[in-house]
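Hi Y.,

Following your request, here is the sequence exactly as I used it, all 719 residues.
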Amino acid sequence: MTSTTHSSLPGPGGPGPDKLAFTLPSGRRRVTPVRVGKEFRRERPLPQLIRKAVLDDDGQQCVQVRLSARDSANPAARALLDIEAGTTLQLNQALGDTDYAPLFPRIIGYELDAAEPFLLYDPPRGTAVSRIQVMGAADQGVFTRDLMLALCLLERRGLVPRGVSPATVRWDGARVQLWGLESVTGIGRPRRPWGGSPFCPPEQRDGEGLADPRDAVWSAAQLLYRLATGRLGPADRPPPDLGEHRMLDQMVRDAFAPSAADRPTPAQVLDLVAPGTVGRVRLTVPPDETRPHHDAFEEALHLKRQAPASRTGRTSESEPAGGEVLCPYCLETIRLDLTKLFATDSRMQYKPLDIKGINNPVRRTDIMRGAVQKCTADPEFPAHYIAVPYLTHGRPLTVAMVGQSSTGKSHLLTQMIAAITDGGLEPFGLKWQSVNPEQHARFVRDRVQPLRNGKVLDHTAALGMDDFARFVESLLITDARGQVRPVAFFDLGGEDLVRTDAALRFLLGVDALVFVVDPALALPLPQLDHARQRWGVEVNRDGDLAFGTVLDRLPKSGGYLDVPSAMVLGKADLLRFQPPVDRWLTRPPATSLDPDVMREESRDVYGLLRRHAGQAWLRPFDAVRRCTLHIASATGGQEDQGRYPAGAGPRRVLEPLLSLLAMHGMVQVRGGAEALAIGEAPALEAMPWDEAERDGDVGRFERADGPEEPEESEGGELQ
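Below is the corresponding structure, written out as tokens. Let me know if you'd prefer a different format.
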């Protein structure tokens, strides 16, 4: 068996070396023959398997940590491997060749989207503490220094390791090496049970409160007690004989406090053991290369706030007079006409529907809900039909997906609608109902279910030269005030936007736009080279042609387009270890809309695109007055031979739509729709623009909301 796409390898005594393909930390791909040794479970009850390996193209020795095909079908198991890979890559990149790098494993490569995902590491240093009975007093001081140093380095990156134990800490007689990085969680994330007593702190064992760096201090103190005495300490209080071990007592007595609030931080213990070390650690923080791009984002918002808001944009909730609505296909006004109703027969053909003889109001309402009306507003336009509920609930809100073909628009839109039907809007006071039950059932059957089961959806087919925009789905959304509004979704293949004028014409009546950025086309990052090679695409420094075509067609007012819009960096799983994607992609689904948080995500996406892709890819943000930027993945990973190995796990697919609904007043946010998209004017903007410019304050904006809260992912726990 030889393969360059799978991680399944023969065991010892198999038919010879196999080919192993993986991604290097630099993002480049490597393919090499590999020989593997005996396999065993790394730490029960965790699913990871581990074995020695030799990369035969250069004889490099390493260890492979992987998931079996059975375990990799469990999303929680894959999440653990993702967390381990992301944490290790982040630490390796941040620490480089410094003296602190050996405190953690060094990753050689990884392959996480295969049927059997894996990581490759340099061989571990030293011996697991579980094999050391007792450690001498002299070594205890060095051991404590290194362990607290490792915890400090993790804390500076907003991480708490929940799995510090004799099985995850190694000692070679001179230095510590901390493994078990699949256990990390973000500071401030809800605690989840992890690990066994006594190394699991009381709050973590009970799943109470929020993760704190001092959780790991408890675990480290228990580990030190075990090395000093050869015994396990109590699971919920200080050891009764701690005073008999003077050095240990001096270093970590308070670390055994039952409450994290009463324990010292890693830095406080480190300062006690090795004064001055904490200050040297701070010097390892790399310079902030994102600041100029974040400043440019703030200046762009300032300019938008200075521009007068349009009074002609389609953002009002008012509907046309006389109960008329705009047909989403031909853009002519249409109203309910009971003489033009149709229903589908058993062969899915439209047949005229006469409801005059139906006097039962319940039955009549039910039949009307499944009926459609033929639109004859434009005799020259191809035949088309509108669901009756679309005509009876006020003015519809139309949402159009914009982007080149193969950018993942169809997958993103499918998962967006699936998230709505799963109840994703309920935390925001919104409820949904299908406009046409039969049409919705077909959408779920043909698109949602296959995608969730791991099938790759077909690309959107091209439209004919005289065809019109393809309608995908529509829902009735009821807001917290009880107002009902139809929301219709459209999807176009990118070539239609640049080729078919009829397809463009419908955009003149669209209420909201979603611009989908394909990172493989936009970002010349080396970790995307393999994806580009697979898909046969190249980086386009001139931006998405479909973006420009749409933006050029829409009318401007006051220098900006006033159609509420969202830009989405799609397929973000390709960049799940790239800052700032790693921070946002792992953030739990939103349950409330905070304008500050949404603006912070927009700033980070803007900075990433401006720094690596160039201004051309930011044209929608620059052209549209109210535009938010988002990170999302419709599938959570890449396909392997036409399927998603663990099914399609969407991440943050609903946030762009929530932003658009808020800009249309359907979701209430602090400060209103304006504040959500362009922010509230800081004090600086109280002075005239020319005066601010003369004083040299333009473009210099400081954060007023304090330090950022880390958003690293919480790994799924295995039952």
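The first strand starts at residue 18 and ends at 23.

Thanks again,
Q.
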